[in-house]
């Protein structure tokens, strides 16, 4: 939300009268016609941008002012470039003053003018003409110092390709591929900017070319790359850097550009001044006979091989070390791209990737590099027939277990899984077993990664993991607290009193309780569905119930449980579903003591208990003992009202011969007696201290369930009728202890009278309370064997004839 002052400024900008706005335009135009632009000019431009940006409709600027703003795009002051570009973008489309460049003035193009130029493009033709103009500017020879217009060419083209990859013609693709080869492989190997060799007689004439250096300070013996350093850089060296930055995008979008059989470029000698033959990765001259696409692929391969070799050098600066990591990520991704396009390169690439993995696998600081390496193994490991288990054990084992608190790694790793989910499920057996480790990302930073797990969770639900995964999801807030304790135990000395949380930290270090926490921190599934001392664990972690991370985690668990149950219903057999019902009944009382969390979990359990039983009504008979035990406990009326109500409804609805032929009279009677005892107990006395009156929904559900059961066993009807009559008499005599609200009492009594009236006619009661399936879901309008379709057709013909 904006501050009060900001809201006031925005309101003034929106409500400025038109005469005042015209005066402001005139004042600004006078300021811009001066020679020097001071703070008043900058403030006025900022105010103009605010006025234009907060209004719903585009405003037209006076032509002279618009023309003056266009001229500011070439101002030497970058702040004026930024403000004029921002203002003009708010007035698009420009009225008669469109920004335009031709071959003569393209050298004046800067980044802000380029942004406006792209913004005003209205069609693919506009983008194509801009690309043509930019590519013509690439014909010059390399010079000392970077040319701004040339250095902007590749970023602009890269942006255009992002939005419209088919705006380049085949000839333009060929041209740019050749230029990329030149810049990547044949850039100058001497430092730019006239670097001096030093000495007493140093001067313009005594300056000698100084070779570029590696990050460790040694003189470079191979071609220039982005990891080479120097006091200055030539234009082609800058273009080398830009070419590498867009190379992967170019390779990925190459097939989207107008395709065709490119002619072999046998006569191409794309070689610029200052080029050298690589001492490390020199190839035969036959590579020059390749078509442009294949040649670019070969040079990209050589460039990335060189970067991987350079990354093994010890950099002097920390920033250079980070640059090495970033270049490694990009290099491996590019190698993966070229191997996807040309499978023959897989065998040349794998030794290098395998050696790189061996070098980096023991260093956790290179974790972000391992994700592209894992992608490479996933895409090409099977073809190269290499053992990938070491990669998967590291990626799914150590990294989530030790680096769960790295947000960048979490994002990249989960994105890798989402993009390759089908392949990972097929080729990585460790994926399913490692879900306890993967859940650590979710437990640590739930709001940031919950979207990823919405996509991933269904793939983790299998017949073998369903039960353990359900327990793990329910204990996810406990895992969050345990991860916090784990990090604190490393960062805080054992004897240091840290105020709040000391007792919990001591419990985490206590050997007798260590097993509880280690189970939550396990890296693989299969060691057991849950632990016996869950209640002990919840008591220990009760102190962590209000920790922010724990609270955030508890908020996402219900969402994931809905996804889990939707997947389970699709793939589980009846035996597994029966087991899950037992887990829901058991875990309804074994949850971390967060009141809102417990209520939400009970609501989820209730919803999906109904879905499971509706899908498989025989589950009610299979689990009748456990369901009756749960429904027969009066304490559940007060502590688990939501799920208790639904269990009672399920028993009354599906404990019927029509749902399962195994349902006997004795089973119906035992269920009736259990529910009758609970209903009598809660309506015969006031609730115990600490409990509130039961909700009317609980009482009416119990009465309905008893009536349904009695309609199936007529011997029970007198008992229900007697209870309902007593209930009506008690309500008429005055207030009752079990219902504090008069309106609630009226609704309960009304429901009782309806059921009592129905039970007076047992045959009718059974039809109403337990209607057949064809009554619940009628399709008479589609059934040609009944009279309704004939009547409808007759009525239709009569109305149409009129």
From TrEMBL:
<feature type="domain" description="AP-5 complex subunit zeta-1 ARM repeats">
    <location>
        <begin position="323"/>
        <end position="440"/>
    </location>
</feature>
<dbReference type="Pfam" id="PF14764">
    <property type="entry name" value="SPG48"/>
</dbReference>
<dbReference type="Pfam" id="PF25153">
    <property type="entry name" value="TPR_AP5Z1"/>
</dbReference>
<feature type="domain" description="AP-5 complex subunit zeta-1 C-terminal TPR">
    <location>
        <begin position="452"/>
        <end position="798"/>
    </location>
</feature>
<dbReference type="InterPro" id="IPR055450">
    <property type="entry name" value="AP5Z1_ARM"/>
</dbReference>
<dbReference type="Pfam" id="PF25154">
    <property type="entry name" value="TPR_AP5Z1_C"/>
</dbReference>
<protein>
    <recommendedName>
        <fullName>Adaptor related protein complex 5 subunit zeta 1</fullName>
    </recommendedName>
</protein>
<feature type="domain" description="AP-5 complex subunit zeta-1 N-terminal TPR">
    <location>
        <begin position="1"/>
        <end position="282"/>
    </location>
</feature>
<dbReference type="InterPro" id="IPR028222">
    <property type="entry name" value="AP5Z1"/>
</dbReference>
<dbReference type="InterPro" id="IPR056856">
    <property type="entry name" value="TPR_AP5Z1_C"/>
</dbReference>
<dbReference type="InterPro" id="IPR056857">
    <property type="entry name" value="TPR_AP5Z1_N"/>
</dbReference>
<dbReference type="GO" id="GO:0044599">
    <property type="term" value="C:AP-5 adaptor complex"/>
</dbReference>
């Amino acid at each position: 939300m904006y501050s009060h002052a900001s809201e006031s400024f925005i309101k003034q900008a929106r409500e400025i009268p038109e005469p005042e706005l015209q005066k402001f335009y005139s004042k600004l135009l006078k300021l811009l016609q001066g020679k020097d632009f001071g703070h008043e000019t900058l403030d006025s431009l900022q105010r103009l941008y605010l006025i234009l940006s907060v209004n719903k409709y585009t405003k037209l600027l006076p032509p002279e002012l618009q023309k003056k703003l266009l001229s500011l795009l070439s101002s030497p002051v970058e702040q004026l470039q930024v403000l004029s570009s921002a203002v003009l973008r708010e007035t698009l489309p420009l009225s008669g003053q469109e920004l335009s460049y031709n071959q003569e003035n393209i050298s004046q193009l800067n980044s802000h003018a380029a942004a406006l130029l792209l913004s005003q493009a209205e069609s693919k033709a506009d983008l194509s003409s801009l690309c043509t103009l930019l590519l013509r500017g690439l014909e010059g020879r390399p010079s000392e110092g970077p040319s701004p217009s040339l250095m902007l060419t590749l970023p602009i083209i890269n942006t255009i390709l992002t939005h419209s990859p088919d705006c380049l013609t085949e000839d333009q693709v060929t041209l740019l591929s050749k230029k990329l080869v030149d810049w990547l492989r044949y850039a100058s190997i001497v430092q730019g900017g006239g670097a001096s060799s030093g000495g007493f007689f140093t001067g313009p004439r005594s300056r000698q070319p100084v070779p570029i250096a590696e990050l460790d300070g040694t003189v470079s013996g191979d071609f220039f790359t982005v990891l080479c350093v120097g006091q200055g850089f030539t234009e082609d060296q800058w273009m080398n850097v830009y070419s590498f930055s867009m190379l992967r995008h170019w390779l990925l979008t190459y097939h989207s550009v107008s395709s065709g059989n490119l002619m072999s470029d046998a006569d191409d000698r794309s070689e610029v001044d200052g080029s050298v033959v690589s001492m490390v990765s020199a190839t035969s001259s036959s590579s020059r006979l390749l078509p442009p696409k294949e040649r670019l692929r070969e040079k990209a391969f050589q460039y990335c091989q060189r970067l991987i070799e350079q990354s093994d050098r010890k950099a002097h600066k920390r920033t250079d070390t980070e640059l090495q990591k970033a270049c490694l990520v990009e290099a491996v991704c590019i190698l993966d791209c070229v191997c996807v396009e040309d499978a023959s390169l897989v065998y040349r690439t794998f030794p290098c990737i395998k050696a790189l993995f061996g070098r980096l696998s023991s260093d956790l600081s290179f974790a972000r590099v391992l994700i592209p390496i894992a992608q490479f193994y996933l895409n090409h490991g099977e073809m190269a027939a290499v053992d990938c288990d070491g990669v998967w054990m590291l990626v799914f084992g150590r990294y989530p277990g030790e680096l769960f608190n790295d947000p960048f790694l979490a994002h990249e790793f989960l994105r890798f899984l989402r993009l390759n989910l089908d392949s990972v499920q097929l080729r990585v057996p460790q994926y399913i077993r490692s879900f306890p480790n993967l859940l650590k990302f979710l437990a640590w930073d739930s709001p940031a990664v919950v979207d990823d797990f919405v996509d991933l969770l269904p793939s983790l639900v299998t017949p073998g993991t369903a039960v353990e995964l359900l327990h793990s999801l329910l204990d996810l807030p406990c895992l969050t607290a345990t991860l916090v304790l784990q990090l604190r135990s490393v960062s805080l000395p054992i004897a240091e009193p840290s105020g709040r949380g000391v007792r919990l930290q001591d419990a985490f270090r206590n050997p007798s309780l260590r097993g509880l926490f280690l189970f939550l921190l396990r890296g693989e599934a299969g060691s057991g569905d849950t632990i016996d001392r869950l209640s002990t664990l919840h008591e220990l972690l009760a102190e962590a119930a209000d920790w922010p991370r724990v609270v955030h985690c508890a908020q996402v668990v219900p969402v994931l449980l809905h996804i889990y149950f939707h997947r389970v219903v699709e793939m589980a057999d009846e035996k597994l579903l029966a087991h899950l019902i037992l887990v829901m009944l058991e875990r309804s009382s074994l949850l971390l003591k967060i009141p809102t969390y417990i209520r939400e979990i009970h609501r989820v359990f209730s919803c999906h208990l109904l879905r499971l039983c509706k899908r498989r009504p025989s589950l009610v008979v299979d689990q009748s003992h456990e369901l009756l035990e749960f429904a027969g406990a009066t304490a559940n009326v007060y502590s688990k009202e939501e799920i208790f109500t639904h269990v009672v409804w399920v028993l009354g609805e599906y404990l019927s011969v029509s749902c399962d032929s195994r349902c006997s009279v004795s089973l119906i009677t035992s269920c009736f007696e259990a529910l009758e005892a609970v209903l009598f107990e809660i309506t015969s006395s006031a609730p115990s201290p600490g409990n509130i009156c039961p909700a009317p929904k609980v009482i009416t559900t119990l009465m309905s369930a008893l009536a349904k059961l009695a309609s199936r066993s007529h011997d029970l009807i007198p008992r229900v009728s007697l209870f309902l009559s007593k209930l009506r008499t008690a309500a008429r005599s005055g207030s009752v202890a079990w219902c504090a609200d008069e309106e609630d009492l009226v609704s309960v009594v009304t429901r009782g009278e309806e059921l009592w009236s129905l039970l007076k006619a047992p045959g009718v009661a059974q039809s109403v309370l337990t209607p057949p399936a064809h009554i619940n879901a009628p399709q008479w309008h589609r059934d040609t064997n009944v009279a309704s379709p004939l009547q409808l057709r007759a009525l239709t013909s009569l109305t149409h004839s009129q």
